[in-house]
C-alpha cells in the first residue's frame, strides 16, 4: 500500500563550506533545523500557495533558502535573500549553486532595498534572526561590524532587530503570504503574536517548538487574517 507520508527532504548539501567560512558565517544549528522542519511540515500548504516571490532575511549559509527551493521543486519562484554579512551572501550564493537552486543574495539590512518595490508581493518570508538577549550596545555593534556576532546579538529581550522587521511585515506579505519567524522563549512569543494581531491584523500559529540544549526554540507562522464574510 502506498504510504501517505512523504519521505523527509535531506538537509541541503553544505560540503563546499569550510571551517574558514564558519569563522565569518553562522553555521546551521538547531534553530536552522527547526525552521527546516517547520517548512517541511507545511510543505503542502506552501506548494498550494504557488509562491512567486520568497524572501529570506539573514540567510547566513543559504541552507534554509536552498531547502525551500527543494521543497517547491516545480515552482518558478524567485528566491531573494538578504544579509548584512558579505561573507554570508557569498556562502548563500554558493550553497544555492551546490543544491541547484538559484538564490539571489543582496547585502542589505532586513528588507530595506525591497520594501517599496515588493510591497504586498512576498509569498514566503522567512527570518531566523539574531534572537539572543544581549545589551543594546552589543547588538548595535554587531549590526555595525556586520560580522559573526550579528548572527546572535539581539539586544533587549533578543528582540531589537526583529521588532524593526515586524512592523513592516504586513506591507511585505502578499494577501495569502506566510511569514516564518524563529525565536527563543526569552523573546516572548505570546506577546509577539498578540501585538501582531492587534497592531497589524496578522493571525499566527506556532508551527513547532523544541528544546535544544539550554534553549527553548519556537517557529511561529504569521498570515493575514481572513476578511470577515
Ligand atoms: C541566526 S543566523 C541565521 C542564519 C541562517 N538563516 C540559518 O538559519 O542558519 C542570523 C543571520 O541574520 C543575519 N543578520 C543580522 N542582522 C541582519 C540584518 N540587519 N539584516 C539582514 N540580516 C541580518 C546574520 O548575519 C546571520 O546570517
TrEMBL record:
Keyword Glycosyltransferase: no
Residue ranges of every copy of the Methyltransferase small domain listed in the record: 34-141
Transmembrane segments: none
Family listed: Belongs to the eukaryotic/archaeal PrmC-related family.
Protein name, UniProt field: Methyltransferase small domain-containing protein
Keywords: Methyltransferase, S-adenosyl-L-methionine, Transferase
Signal peptide (from-to): none
Source organism: Hohenbuehelia grisea
Amino acid at each position: 500500500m502506498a504510504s501517505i507520508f512523504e519521505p523527509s527532504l535531506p538537509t541541503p548539501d553544505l560540503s563546499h563550506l569550510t571551517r574558514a567560512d564558519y569563522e565569518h558565517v553562522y553555521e546551521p544549528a538547531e534553530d536552522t533545523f527547526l525552521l527546516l522542519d517547520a517548512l517541511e511540515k507545511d510543505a503542502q500548504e506552501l506548494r498550494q500557495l504557488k509562491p512567486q516571490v520568497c524572501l529570506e532575511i539573514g540567510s547566513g549559509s543559504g541552507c534554509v533558502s536552498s531547502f525551500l527551493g527543494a521543497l517547491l521543486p516545480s515552482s518558478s519562484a524567485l528566491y531573494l535573500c538578504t544579509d548584512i554579512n558579505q561573507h554570508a551572501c557569498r556562502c548563500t550564493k554558493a550553497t544555492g549553486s551546490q543544491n541547484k537552486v538559484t538564490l539571489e543574495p543582496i547585502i542589505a539590512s532586513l528588507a530595506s532595498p525591497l520594501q517599496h518595490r515588493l510591497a504586498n508581493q512576498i509569498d514566503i518570508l522567512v527570518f531566523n534572526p539574531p534572537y539572543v538577549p544581549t545589551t543594546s550596545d552589543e547588538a548595535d555593534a554587531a549590526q555595525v561590524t556586520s560580522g559573526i556576532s550579528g548572527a546572535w546579538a539581539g539586544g533587549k529581550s533578543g528582540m531589537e532587530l526583529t521588532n524593526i522587521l515586524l512592523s513592516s511585515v504586513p506591507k511585505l506579505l502578499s494577501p495569502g503570504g506566510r511569514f516564518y519567524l524563529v525565536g527563543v522563549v526569552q523573546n516572548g512569543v505570546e506577546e509577539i503574536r498578540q501585538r501582531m494581531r492587534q497592531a497589524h491584523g496578522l493571525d499566527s500559529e506556532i508551527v513547532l517548538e523544541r528544546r535544544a540544549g539550554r534553549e527553548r526554540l519556537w517557529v511561529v507562522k504569521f498570515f493575514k487574517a481572513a476578511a470577515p464574510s
